[in-house]
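Tokens for chain A. Residues wanted.
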């Protein structure tokens, strides 16, 4: 697999490779900023890459060894920040690329973190709770010298959750010999978690979509919305956007899609899925093909589940005015060119879904202060950052004559490069 340090031209054969996509977008932004070769090398290169082998005594008495990674991409603007995933297909290349994306995401919303990412090669579905706890604690112990509120602050990611974060925090605290809540975010509320965190990514998507509607002269009541994904991002965005007056006409999931031209009752659909295990068969909407639902006429399309759902093969069929990328990497670089030609207003992922890491930053701040905010204050400060970041990206787009994604990458690279120049190179 190619890495960010060895970019390959994007073609129809490799356009779904997200790491090549990240490299291509980096290259375009760096070129537009006229960054010299040396600065490009610094910005591409991870600060640290850690590989550990993790012995775990399984419940049946067998001893198994798992491989774990932690990559700190940049520490120029603050501690590394990024999730830890447990999955059988985790690779160092994947973790490396995701860490770089976190650097740019944190820089776009101007919070004082660099990018980090971690992963353990395992299938959590075949591990017991006790085995997962042993795995988590030993992985934490192996990388503990590189963690800390001022060094690297992990968070949940694929197949990890607040329980896993509690194990990490406890393991770190036992080694530190005192409670250190700020070493991770995404924790349970009684252990220093933040109010508003579960809703943060979906709420951030709604906030930037409202800004995009305003720019296009539209009101929420005039906006038909199609949302792909009904989990933490898509489901929460649907709930919040519906309450704000948007008309959610379709929800698309892995097993089907539902459609109602008059708008879907999101609370009723959530109740239906809880009872049946699926969104399909919902009495207040009609079932339809999940692929075709993506091409319904709408003002807003919000892919909030998986990557590479919009490609060169289907981008021309989209019938939305605004594309708000709730998921990471839902659009390929080849699709970007088509969307730009068709005049689709794209809110790129490193801006659109940055509400999650922003409220994670708030959690870190609250833990370090030992003073916790009410949800109203969390949401108020989230809106301030999302609105300011949206305006900054649009200003870059207009100033440099580029589309929004390139502008977001340019803004991010510019901020990180400035921090490096101001700090100088220690020798």
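Reply:
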């Amino acid at each position: 697999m190619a890495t960010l340090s060895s970019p390959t031209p994007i073609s129809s054969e490799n356009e779904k490779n997200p790491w090549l996509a990240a490299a291509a977008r980096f290259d375009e932004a760096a070129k537009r900023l006229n960054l010299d070769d040396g600065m490009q090398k610094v910005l591409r290169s991870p600060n640290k890459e850690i590989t550990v082998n993790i012995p775990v005594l399984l419940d049946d008495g067998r001893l198994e060894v798992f491989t774990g990674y932690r990559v700190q991409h940049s520490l120029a603007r603050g501690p590394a920040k990024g999730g830890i995933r447990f999955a059988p297909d985790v690779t160092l290349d994947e973790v490396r690329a995701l860490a770089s994306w976190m650097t740019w995401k944190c820089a776009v919303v101007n919070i004082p973190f660099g990018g980090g990412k971690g992963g353990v090669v395992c299938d959590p579905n075949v591990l017991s709770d006790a085995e997962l706890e042993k795995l988590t604690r030993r992985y934490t112990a192996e990388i503990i010298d590189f963690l800390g509120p001022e060094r690297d602050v992990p968070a949940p990611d694929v197949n990890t959750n607040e329980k896993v974060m509690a194990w990490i925090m406890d393991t770190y605290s036992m080694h530190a010999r005192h409670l250190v809540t700020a070493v991770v975010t995404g924790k349970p509320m009684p252990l220093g978690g933040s109010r508003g965190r579960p809703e943060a990514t979906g709420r951030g998507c709604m906030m930037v979509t409202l800004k995009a509607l305003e720019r296009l002269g539209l009101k929420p009541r005039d906006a038909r919305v199609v949302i792909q994904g009904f989990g933490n991002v898509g489901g929460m965005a649907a709930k919040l956007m519906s309450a704000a007056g948007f008309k959610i006409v379709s929800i698309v999931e892995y097993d089907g899609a539902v459609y109602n031209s008059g708008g879907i009752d999101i609370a009723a659909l959530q109740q239906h899925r809880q009872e049946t295990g699926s969104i399909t068969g919902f009495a207040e909407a009609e079932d339809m093909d999940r692929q075709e639902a993506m091409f319904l006429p709408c003002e807003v399309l919000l892919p909030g589940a998986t990557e590479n759902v919009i490609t060169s093969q289907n981008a021309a069929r989209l019938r939305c005015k605004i594309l708000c990328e709730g998921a990471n990497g839902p659009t390929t670089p080849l699709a970007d060119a088509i969307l730009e030609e068709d005049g689709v207003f794209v809110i790129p992922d490193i801006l659109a879904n940055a509400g999650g890491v922003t409220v994670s930053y708030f959690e870190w701040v609250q833990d370090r202060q030992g003073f916790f905010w009410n949800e109203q204050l969390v949401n108020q400060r989230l809106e301030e950052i999302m609105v300011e970041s949206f305006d900054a990206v649009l200003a870059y787009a207009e100033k440099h004559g580029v589309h929004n994604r390139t502008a977001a990458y340019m803004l991010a690279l510019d901020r990180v490069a400035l921090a490096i120049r101001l700090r100088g190179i220690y020798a």
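Residues 220 and 246 are 5 Å apart (CA to CA). Residues 45-191 form a domain with the Rossmann fold fold (CATH 3.40.50.10860).
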